[in-house]
Amino acid sequence: MKPFWRTEPLSESESEILRLLSAAHAESARRENVSHVALVNTFLGSGSYANAIAAAILTLGGRHGPIEETMRMLESHTSVVAALDNGVDLLVPGWGNSFVKGRLDPLWEKTDTALRKARPDLMSRADAITDALHRRGKDVWPNPSYYTAAVAIALKMPPQIAGYLFITARLEAWTEIALCHAK
After folding, report:
1. How confident is the model at residue 108 (pLDDT cuts 50, 70, 90)?
2. What is the DSSP letter of 161?
3. 3-state class of 64 per DSSP?
4. DSSP secondary structure code for residue 55 in this structure
5. For the segment 15-36, what is each residue's pLDDT rounded down to a tens digit?
6. Lowest CB count within 10 Å: 35, 37, 50, 111, which one?
7. Is the pLDDT confidence value at 75 over 90?
8. Is the per-residue pLDDT at 183 higher than 80?
9. Contact at 8 Å (CB) between 28 and 107?
10. CB within 8 A of 23, min separation 6: which ones?
11. Closest Cα partner for 176 from 27, 24, 55?
């Protein structure tokens, strides 16, 4: 793949983390998360595939898929760790999962492993934040937003278009889900 946001092609390692990210997102899209539910409800209510896809996309940011926010936070991860260690109660974008508690989500293990190999610097940031959250008594782990943000950083993608990774990786699954509800 020739990335449109930079001049140099993806390396083998970058292609692999992108492939693993996409596979994990495709599986995550099938869970009844916010974008999945918005997609289904909009499709059932409007009968419009385009509206359903738009509804799923419009759930991104804030609490569901805060990719830009996660990228920006990763740039200043040391201040996040310091704030947590000083007792500040933060909602850290890119951490927490509604489907898996108390450990890394198994759907994201391969992406995690590949990022540890390709970009140990990004994973050490994640580990520092996770450890600080655990010290505060919050048993949360990186979620799809973190992995999407980390891969976007690894691929030298600007934050304002990093949602592209989330959307393109989930589009096929979202389409299949909408098709299952078509009658």
Report:
1. very high
2. G
3. strand
4. H
5. 999 999 999 999 999 999 999 9
6. 50
7. no
8. no
9. yes
10. 110
11. 27
d(CA 94, CA 141): 8
User: Comparing C-alpha atoms, which of 119, 147, 143, 126 is closest to residue 21?
Assistant: 147
Spatial contact of 76 and 153, defined as CB atoms under 8 Å apart: no
How far is Cα 125 from Cα 152, in angstroms, rounded to an integer? 15
pTM of the prediction?
A: 0.95
Statement: residue 138 has pLDDT above 80: yes
| Sign of the torsion angle spanned by Cα atoms 29, 35, 41, 42 | negative
Closest CA to 70 of 153, 164, 156, 138: 153
Q: Give ∠ CA 139-98-118 in degrees, rounded to 5.
A: 70
Assigned token pair, 22: 């996409």
What CA–CA distance (Å, rounded) separates 94 from 38? 20
Beta bridge partners of 61: 64
Instruction: Round to whole Å and give the CA distance between 52 and 112.
Output: 30
Q: Are 80 and 132 in contact (CB under 8 A)?
A: yes
And the tokens for 77? Answer: 């991860």
* Residue 87 dihedral angles phi and psi, to the nearest 5°: 90, 5
**What pLDDT score does 34 carry?**
96
